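Duplicate of earlier report; TetR/AcrR family transcriptional regulator input re-posted below.
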Amino acid sequence: MSELMWERGYADTSPREVRQRSGVGQGSMYHHFPTKRDLALAALERNIPDLLPAASELDDPGDPMARIEAYLMRPRDPLKGCKVGRMTQDPQVREDPVLLAPVARAFTQVHASWVRVLREAVAARQLRDDLDPERLAHTLMAVLQGGYVLAIAQQDPGPFNNAVASALDLLRAAAPAAPDHKDKKRNRTA
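Output:
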């Protein structure tokens, strides 16, 4: 179910297809998952850990900007999209608070990781202190999710790759200006 939901979405996946792909008998499947919704909820809970470990890299120790760059540039398959983000496009998931809850929870956790690493980058003077880490975290998440949408729509990973590279360019441009040589000399003589 996890793979089929990623490929087709919840609405377009049937329990029969899940049984065929998994090789599990009907009785066994319905014993553990009495409804399609139960099966989907279990699949969502399984897909979320695929998103969260990568985002937890943002919480690792070390240079904050290096962690941000590594996270943004890590290998992904843009044409498949995000296993979790894709579920927000499925009307049956969007309209079911029980199915939407793990998706929202996952994005909340990823947002918190982004905010922490961005605050670290500001504290390390790698980003300007007038930037709002909360808003910037939403922007970076939107760049990734929007990049997936554009790549899928065009059946080309280029838009995703360009979006990520541009996000890095913008972050680098948001670094505090280094004092020029004259300012350093003035500070030493003062």
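The CA atoms of residues 106 and 175 lie 29 Å apart.

Merging into the original ticket.
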